[in-house]
Amino acid sequence: MREAMDPWTFVVAAYAVGLGAAAAMVAWSLITMKRAEKRRDEARKR
Fold first, then answer.
1. Where are the bilayer-spanning segments (predicted)?
2. Mean pLDDT of successive 10-residue segments in the chain (46 residues)?
3. What's the CA gap between 43 and 41, in Å, rounded?
4. Sign of torsion, CA 40 44 45 46?
5. What is the pLDDT of residue 1?
6. pTM of the predicted model, to two decimals?
7. Cα separation of 32 and 16, whole Å?
């Protein structure tokens, strides 16, 4: 039985949270960019 904590669980969790947050930010940016392009195209048609 070990008393020391294994840090790799937390390292993997930190990477998972970081990569997940980065992926969410990229997806949010793409969605926002598509909406802005659609609004720009609609404004040009008027």
1. 12-31
2. 84 98 98 97 89
3. 5
4. positive
5. 64
6. 0.72
7. 24
18: tokens are 């970081």
Helices (H), the chain: 8-45
The DSSP 8-state label assigned to residue 7 in this structure reads T
- CA gap 32, 6 in Å, rounded: 40
DSSP code per residue over 31-42: HHHHHHHHHHHH
What token pair was written down for 45?
């048609």
pLDDT for the residue 5: 84
